[in-house]
Amino acid sequence: MSPNEAPIPPEVEHDLSVVKRGCDELLVEFEFARKLARSREQNIPLRIKLGLDPTAPDIHLGHTVVLNKMRQLQELGHTVIFLIGDFTALIGDPSGRNTTRPPLTAEQIHENAKTYYAQASMVLDPARTEIRYNSEWCDKLGTRGMIELASRYTVARMMERDDFTRRFKSGVPISVHEFLYPLLQGYDSVVLKADLEMGGTDQKFNLLVGRELQKEYGMEPQCILTMPLLEGTDGVDKMSKSKGNYIGITESPDSIFGKLMSISDTLMWRYYELLSFRSMSEIQALQKQVAEGLNPREAKVALAQEIVERFHSRKAAEDALATFEARFRDGAIPENMPEVNVGKAPMGILKILREAGLAASGSEAQRNVEQGGVRVDGQRVADKALHLNAGTYVVQVGKRKFARVTLTE
C-alpha cells in the first residue's frame, strides 16, 4: 500500500489475499486495492481479462493456473473476459522467443479456437464469463487505425523487452510485425476497458503495454497479475505439449491420475499451491503431516483425486484410484522406474523399446510384441506397427522391465 492511501478495509484485505495466493506479482497493489474497494462500494464488478491465442487445440493443467485464479475472482463477484486471440495468433506472440514465431494459418486458428472455450468452461463459471475474439475490433482497425495505434508507443520502449534486446544484440532478425503483437494485445485492454489483466510471468511486458496504452487513451490503467509458469511432469521445463510433459484436462481419468502420481514429492507441493482449491492453511497442515511421517504418496493421491474429480467426476476419481492401486497391488507397475526421453513423436513401438533400453535389438523388440509381453500404460500391445504420439507413457516388457518414456512433438 502507498503511505498516502487510506487503510484497506478488512473485506478488501480478504479479497486481496485470495487474489495474491500463488501469484508472482501484482502491479500496482494499492491501485488494485482501490479498485476492489470501489467495486464493493458501487456494486459494480471489475472486468478481469485473460487473452489466450489458440496456438494448440487443447488446454492443459499449466493453462489452468491462470484460469483457476480467474474462477476465484468470479467467486468474488467479478466479470471475467475470456479473450480468444484469433487475430493476434496470426502474428504469433514473440514472448520468450529467440526467433520469429511462424504464424498460424486462419484455418488452424479457427480449428483450435473451437475447443478453447469449451475446455476453459470446465474451470470458469460460464454464467459469469464474457467470451470475446479480438478479430472483432482488430479487423476493423485497417491501415489508418494501425498507424495511429503504432504512434502511441516508441521503438525505445519496445526494445526494453528482453527477448527483443537479446535478438538485436546477437544479430538475430526481428520482423516489424512482431512489434505489432504487444501493441494489439494492449489495444485489446483499451477496447475491453479491463481493470485487471492476467497472464504468465512471460507475458509481463505485453501486459504493461496494455496499461500504458490505456493511459494514452485517457483511461484508468489496468492492474496486472502475473502467475508462475507451471513446471511439467518432468519438474524441469514449463508444462508444454511440445515437451511431452503435459497433463491435458480432457485426458482420461486414469491418465490424469497416473501422470500426477508420477511427479516428484517436491513438485507435488508446487502443484498443490497452483492447482488445488484447498486453502493454504489446509495445504500447510498436510505438509506438516508429511514432515511428521505421513507417506507423501497419500498427499499425492489426494491431489490426483481432486484434479480428476474437477474435470470428470467423484466416481471417476474413485475408480482411477482403484485402478491405480490394483496395478501396484498385483505387482504390475513399480512406483520408481527409469525415465527416458526417446525423441520426437510419432515413433514406432519397436524403436521405442530399443531407445528406452527395454530391448537390445529390433528383432528382440518384435519378438516381445509378438509374444504379448509388451504393455503401454497397462494395455497389451498386439500391433508391432503401433506408433505413439507425443506424451509420457509407462512402457513394460515382461514382468520386470519398465520405463517411463517421453516423446516430444
Automatic annotation (TrEMBL):
InterPro entries (UniProt xref): aa-tRNA-synth_I_CS, aa-tRNA-synth_Ic, Rossmann-like_a/b/a_fold, S4_RNA-bd, S4_RNA-bd_sf, Tyr-tRNA-ligase, Tyr-tRNA-ligase_bac-type, Tyr-tRNA-ligase_bac_2
Cross-referenced Pfam families: S4 (PF01479), tRNA-synt_1b (PF00579)
EC primary class: ligase
GO molecular function, one term: tyrosine-tRNA ligase activity
All copies of domain RNA-binding S4, residue ranges: 347-408
Record's catalysed reaction(s): tRNA(Tyr) + L-tyrosine + ATP = L-tyrosyl-tRNA(Tyr) + AMP + diphosphate + H(+)
Protein biosynthesis is among the record's keywords: yes
Alphabetized SMART domains for the sequence: S4
Motif residue range(s): 'KMSKS' region: 238-242
Compartments, as annotated in UniProt: Cytoplasm
Predominant location category: cytoplasm
Family annotation (PROSITE patterns): AA_TRNA_LIGASE_I (PS00178), S4 (PS50889)
Annotated binding of ATP, by residue: K241
Motif ('HIGH' region): 54-63
EC number, as in UniProt: 6.1.1.1
Gene3D superfamilies tied to this protein: HUPs, RNA-binding S4 domain, Tyrosyl-Transfer RNA Synthetase
Keywords from the named record: Aminoacyl-tRNA synthetase, ATP-binding, Cytoplasm, Ligase, Nucleotide-binding, Protein biosynthesis, RNA-binding
Record-stated family: Belongs to the class-I aminoacyl-tRNA synthetase family. TyrS type 2 subfamily.
NCBIfam families, per database record: tyrS (TIGR00234)
Primary role: Catalyzes the attachment of tyrosine to tRNA(Tyr) in a two-step reaction: tyrosine is first activated by ATP to form Tyr-AMP and then transferred to the acceptor end of tRNA(Tyr).
Protein name per UniProt: Tyrosine--tRNA ligase
Organism name: Yanghanlia caeni
Upper taxonomic lineage: Bacteria, Pseudomonadati, Pseudomonadota, Betaproteobacteria, Burkholderiales
Gene this protein is translated from: tyrS
